[in-house]
Amino acid sequence: MDVPFWLWLAVLGLIVGMLAVDLFAHRRAHVIGVREAAAWSVVWVLIGVGFGAWVWVAYGAELGQQYYAGYLIEKSLAVDNVFVWAIVFTFFAVPREYQHRVLFFGVLGALVLRGAFIAGGAALIENFEWVLYVFAAFLLWTGYRMLRQRDEHIDPSRSRTLRLFRRFVPMTDAYHGQRFLVRRGGVLLATPLLAVLVLVEVTDVVFAVDSIPAIFAVTDEPFLVFTANAFAILGLRAMYFLLADLIHRFVYLKTGLALVLVWVGVKMLLKIDVYYVPTTVSLAVITSILAVSVWASLRATRGQGRRAVEPPAAPPFRVATADELAEVEPLWRRRGRRDTPERDTPEPAGTP
């Protein structure tokens, strides 16, 4: 696949532009409702699907199908990520009106980190073909582990990331609006919102370790791997607000995701020395597994409505009071006259 440098720049410009639009649309902290989240989800899906249609027309059906297979894998694995975020936000009692800001910067960091992972993975595959065996074995093991742990959930109270953050970074125990940093008593402090952002980023790194090898199983084109990842991730914020209160209904989703990982692991093993599974077949298998797992989940939980994750009895963080907000100093101090040493002023003439 011959991708000119200007096309990379155009795609990056499109991504930056979409992020800017999203940030402008949500510049004011507010609770994002289901209708707004659904509208934005449709927008992001249409953009991702539309880009795949352009790849299909410009580069042919095979590469177009590879993009869609990768996009579908990343989008489906991202749903599990969304459910983890819901547990994290609930445990740390993050006010809903501040959650979008955390997710915006979380997605921004995820794009950068995944770009680095994709570049590293592509370089490894190009120079050391045997690494495909490692990726395939890792996918098979991850799928097996996910099947065994399908009923288990993350426990934020045992997070090593949070313990390390609180050990090395001075922080408050209260949310100060949408601020990640505050200055109080002349000391720069992190807020719990920054700690949650770090936890979200670490969580995405863990998920990227699974998803990046998975997408390399359906395409070895770095451009398709990156764009499928990027367009799938861009819609995660809207997807979170749409699905966060429906975790209890997707009871078989983890089983479906585990089977997808096992399938792409087998496909990668066959691809190395035995047989190349056509992309059309691979795309059909992935779509069927996900469709059946979602259908079975919704059927098993029919009649159940939206229900938020149960919060802990004593959340570790709280919202700052009006007095605490009033004590916050300017984040970045400016050097003014008070910072300059006083000079001796000459006495007026005639003064004794």
From TrEMBL:
Major localization class: membrane
PANTHER family per the UniProt record, alphabetical: MEMBRANE BOUND PREDICTED REDOX MODULATOR, THYLAKOID MEMBRANE PROTEIN TERC, CHLOROPLASTIC
Name recorded for this polypeptide: Tellurite resistance protein TerC
Entry keyword Glycoprotein: no
Pfam family, one: TerC
UniProt keyword Thylakoid, yes or no: no
Record-stated family: Belongs to the TerC family.
